[in-house]
């Protein structure tokens, strides 16, 4: 297909090893949500992966050029500690760093994070950065996971945001992993297009040829701009195996995006880096501690981390079920959750991932 303007270049980054498909993690979900958005549902699986890449990319770049950090501070939306953590203000507990990642297909500028009735955090992940700067672990928490929510009894974990705003969502996830969350980051879907276009397009390797929305995708390499990328990761009806191929296309895009962000063409071009951060930062909402100072200091500790060093796994679940009020839910594997909590608290998540049951990887 025709490359996006300014996107004529080779893809020279490091490929990401990821055996986890985002659609696979959410196939069990109930089709009826309080505010159904069928066309946007796929973003709830893609946006967090994008946010992971963005954060790691910024961490790696922060050491390279301090002005990028200043640009991030200037353009990103910083939330106060009370907005994020409530009156408790959060706190450090144990080794390693835990960052809650939320993806939103709502425009965050219209959302009151302290009074989010009707809004649900349909994508939830916790990124663990080990104290020794080794491999990064990402745990996906299915949105229908049935947990205790303070003041509301048992409910789906994604309803915490609706019940009590961001502070309750943060405390609920913190309770789930058994230790404090150090930082929180949210991105809305417009940031996806802005980031893709600021990179001059992203090269993806499509397993199949197909057409959609006036775009033609060939088998093999395709250079996509933001709008084309949106179509590429959304489509499923064109394929015999539907959601499975869509998941593979999402992985192909994530690999391409990662490769482009850490390619020599990007890292050796200060203006490209600056434009990239300037374009996506307005769509990011972060706690006050996730600033340029933190980014630059963390970058040094993580200077050797590459996309292949990111390990994905799923929160320990014990199959689907039905709640007393008739909702479709995901039950928690309580015995395995004890091991997960120990791992997060003791900075041994890497060891847990190596030994976790296959069902949770």
From TrEMBL:
Keywords: Membrane, Transmembrane, Transmembrane helix. It comes from the Bacteria. Belongs to the LytR/CpsA/Psr (LCP) family. Residues 9-22 have a biased composition (Polar residues). Residues 1-38 are annotated as: Disordered. The keyword Amino-acid biosynthesis does not apply. The keyword Transferase does not apply. Residues 120-262 form the Cell envelope-related transcriptional attenuator domain. It holds the Pfam family LytR_cpsA_psr. The chain crosses the membrane at residues 46-66. Residues 25-35 have a biased composition (Basic and acidic residues). This is Cell envelope-related function transcriptional attenuator common domain-containing protein.
């Amino acid at each position: 297909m025709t490359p996006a303007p300014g996107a004529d270049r080779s893809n020279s980054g490091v490929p990401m090893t990821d055996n986890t498909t985002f659609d696979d993690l959410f196939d069990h979900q109930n089709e009826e949500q309080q505010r159904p958005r069928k066309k946007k549902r796929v973003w709830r699986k893609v946006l967090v992966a994008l946010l992971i890449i963005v954060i790691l990319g910024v961490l790696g770049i922060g050491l390279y050029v301090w002005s990028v950090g200043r640009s991030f501070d200037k353009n990103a939306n910083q939330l106060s500690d009370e907005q994020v953590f409530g009156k408790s203000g959060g706190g450090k507990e144990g080794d390693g760093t835990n960052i809650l990642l939320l993806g939103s297909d709502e425009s965050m500028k219209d959302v009151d994070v302290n009074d989010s009735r009707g809004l649900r955090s349909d994508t939830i992940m916790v990124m663990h950065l080990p104290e020794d700067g080794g491999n990064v672990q990402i745990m996906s928490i299915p949105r229908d996971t049935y947990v205790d929510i303070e003041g509301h009894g048992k409910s789906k974990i994604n309803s915490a945001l609706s019940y009590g705003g961001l502070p309750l969502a943060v405390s609920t996830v913190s309770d789930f992993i058994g230790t404090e969350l150090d930082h929180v980051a949210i991105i809305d879907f417009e940031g996806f297009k802005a980031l893709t276009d600021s990179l001059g397009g992203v090269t993806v390797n499509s397993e199949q040829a197909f057409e959609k929305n006036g775009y033609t995708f060939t088998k093999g390499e395709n250079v996509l701009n933001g709008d084309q990328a949106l179509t590429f990761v959304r489509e499923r009806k064109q394929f015999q195996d539907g959601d499975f191929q869509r998941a593979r296309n999402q992985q192909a895009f994530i690999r391409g995006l990662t490769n482009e962000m850490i390619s020599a063409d990007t890292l050796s071009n200060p203006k490209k880096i600056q434009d990239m951060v300037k374009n996506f930062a307005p769509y990011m909402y972060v706690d006050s501690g996730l600033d340029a100072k933190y980014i630059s200091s963390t970058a040094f500790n993580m200077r050797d981390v590459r996309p292949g060093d990111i390990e994905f796994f799923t929160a320990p679940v014990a199959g689907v079920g039905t709640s007393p009020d008739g909702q479709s839910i995901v039950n928690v594997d309580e015995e395995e959750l004890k091991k997960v909590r120990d791992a997060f608290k003791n900075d041994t998540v890497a060891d847990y991932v190596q030994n976790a049951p296959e069902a949770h990887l």
